[in-house]
Amino acid sequence: MPTATPAPRDALSRAVRGWLDHLRVERGASEHTLRAYERDLRRYQEFLRRRGIGSPSEVGEGVVTDFLAHLRTGSEDYRPLAASSAARALVAVRGFHKFLAAEGDVVEDPAQLVAPPTPARRLPKAISIDAVERLLEAASVGDTPASLRDRALLEVLYGSGARVSEAIGLDLDDVDLGRGDATQGTGAEGTVTEDAVVRLLGKGSKERIVPLGSYATDAVEAWLVRGRPALATRGRGTPAVFLNQRGGRLSRQSAWNVIQRAAERADLSGHLSPHTLRHSFATHLLDGGADVRVVQELLGHASVATTQIYTLVTARHLREVYAQAHPRAR
Fold it and tell me: Which residue out of 43, 163, 249, 279 is catalytically annotated?
């Protein structure tokens, strides 16, 4: 009996699955990235099927352009997307078609020349050094395991510029407090520790080694010595540095809750997130005279152009100070 020809719907779905598997296995994409791409491509598949397209070989450049316009105008199922969100969806579509062309599954790449919309430039949100200090102090209420963990987590986020996924992904072997033997002391707050570092696993599974300042080092040490053992007994022996109340690895949502609670206690207005501390880390370094290339390495940016947006923040701050302080500024 002859083998049945797969339905067009199956051809499109299999192509999408093949690209996602390639990203996972060959490119080492994170689960967070894969979920975002899968969500964008699910919307793209629905758009193609409403056009009667069931195979990638039927897609032309005009179809991809129409899809981008469709994202910007919205539909009955969802509201119009901002330029940045539409651009992100187009990245998934372009990567998908580029992969199929490289594999020889299609003759041409129909998305190659489709340009993403230009999003409005948004400066990263950073808070002042005083606000950071208030936030960190508010994170450590009492001497409970949870308060020690919360302080250590926020100190690491601000002290290393780590993404929240990188911080909660830390294992014990990724942290070197550089204390050496007992003769170096217990690390009273404010002491200099030159060798303390963390190994962060960033986007695309790229590793980088980032130094920890003395305050972050002291907070992490206090958590590991006086807080973590109590929570670790409730779990199954995970190597994670930051644990939840059940002894498992702390989740992204729990990390968000940590900073929200601290922000409320510190009476800090505005929307604060773990990424706020990363932005503040970069901005304060540049304000202090750090070279943008060094900040690029610390943040794990693939391109210095991504880091240079922080120079706009510091330039704006300079203009504000000038306008307020100079007698002939206005």
Answer: 163
Angle among Cα 143, 144, 147 to the nearest 5 degrees reads 85
Report in angstroms the alpha-carbon separations of 320 from 87, 194, 293, 326.
Answer: 32, 35, 25, 10
Q: Of the candidates 201, 133, 216, which has an alpha carbon nearest to the alpha carbon of residue 164?
A: 201
- Is 203 annotated as catalytic? yes
Active site residue 79: no
Q: How many helices (H) and strands (E) does the chain have?
A: 14, 3
Share of the chain above pLDDT 70, in %: 87
Longest dimension (CA), the chain: 91
Confidence of residue 174 (pLDDT cuts 50, 70, 90): very high
Of the residues 149, 278, 279, 284, which is catalytic?
278
Distance, C-alpha 148 to centroid of its chain: 24
116 phi/psi in degrees, rounded to 5: -75, 155
E strands within 18-99? none
Given 70, 208, 252, 275, which residue is catalytic?
275
- Decide: helix, strand or coil at residue 134: helix
Domains of the chain: 8-103 (1.10.150.130), 131-272 (1.10.443.10)
Q: Report how far residue 292's alpha carbon sits from residue 310's, in angstroms, rounded to the nearest whole number.
A: 9
Question: Is 0.70 topped by the overall pTM?
Answer: no
Q: Where are the strands (E) in the chain, listed by range?
A: 175-176, 197-201, 207-211
* DSSP one-letter code for 161: -
For the question of residue 317 being annotated catalytic, the response is no
Measured between its terminal Cα atoms, the distance across the chain in Å is 86
Q: Between 31-50 and 83-103, two packed helices, what is the crossing angle to 10 degrees?
A: 90
Band of residue 201 on the pLDDT scale cut at 50, 70, 90: very high
Q: Which helix (H) or strand (E) holds 240?
A: none
For strand 207-211 and strand 175-176, is the pairing parallel, antiparallel, or unpaired? unpaired
**Residue 241 structure tokens:** 């540095």
